Amino acid sequence: MALLNVLCYPDPRLHKVAKPVAQVDARIKKIVADMADTMYEAPGVGLAATQVDIHERIVVIDISEEQNELRVFINPEIIWVSSEKKSWREGCLSVPEFYDEVERPAQVRVKALDLDGKEFEIETDGLLAVCLQHELDHLQGKVFVEYLSILKRTRISHKLKKRTKELLDER
Ligand code: NI
Q1: What is the DSSP letter of 164?
Q2: CA atoms within 13 A of residue 68's CA, in its CB half-sphere
Q3: Which of 8, 34, 124, 134 is the least crowded, having the fewest Cβ atoms under 10 Å away?
C-alpha cells in the first residue's frame, strides 16, 4: 500500500492539463492502486491523477457506502451531457474543509478504458455523474472552486494558503 501526496488548492500544479495514457501497462496499474489507496485513506469518493501530481488521464471513483466498488477510468471522455442540470454540494480532497453548491448537467455519458485497456461506456446520473464531471475537470486543470464567485474563491485560497503554511510550520 502506498499513499500519495494530495496537492492542495491553490497549488499551481492542479492547473496542469493531463496527457492521455498511451498504454495501460504495469506502471499505470501501480498508479491506479496507489491512487485507490490514497482515496480510501482520505477518505474520498473520487481522485484524479492530477491531484497527486501525475499528469495523465486517470481517475478512480468509489461512491459505494462500504467503499468496496472501485471504478477506474483511464482516458475518460464525456461524450454526452443532458440539458437538464442539477445542483450538488461538492467537496474535494484538494480543497479540504470547503463545500459548496455547483450546478452541472444531471446526466452524462462517459467513455473510458478499463484496467485491461478495454473501452467501455457508462451513462449515469446522481452522485456518480457529479463525481465523474468533477474528476474529469481535474484532468483539465480545473478545480470545482472555479465555478464559485471570485470573492469565495479568493477567500478559500487565502484560508488554504494559511492552513498549508501552518501544517508546514508544525513539522
Ligand atoms: Ni476534487
Answers
A1: H
A2: 1
A3: 124
pTM equals 0.96
Please provide residue 170's backbone torsions phi and psi, each rounded to the nearest 5 degrees: -70, -20
| Grid cell locating 108 | 452524462
Residue for cell digits 471570485? Answer: 150
Q: How far apart are CA 64 and CA 48, in angstroms?
A: 17
Tell me the three cell numbers of residue 22: 498511451
Cell of 116: 485491461
Number of Cβ within a 10 Å radius of residue 126: 12
Question: Of 77, 123, 135, 166, which residue is the catalytic one?
Answer: 135
69 assigned to active site: no
DSSP 56: B
Distance (Å) of CA 9 to CA 25, 44, 66, 90: 30, 16, 28, 15
144 CA distance to ligand 1 centroid (A)?
Answer: 7
Alpha carbon of 166 to ligand 1 centroid (Å): 22
CA distances from residue 147 to 81, 88, 135 in whole angstroms, order as listed:
18, 12, 14
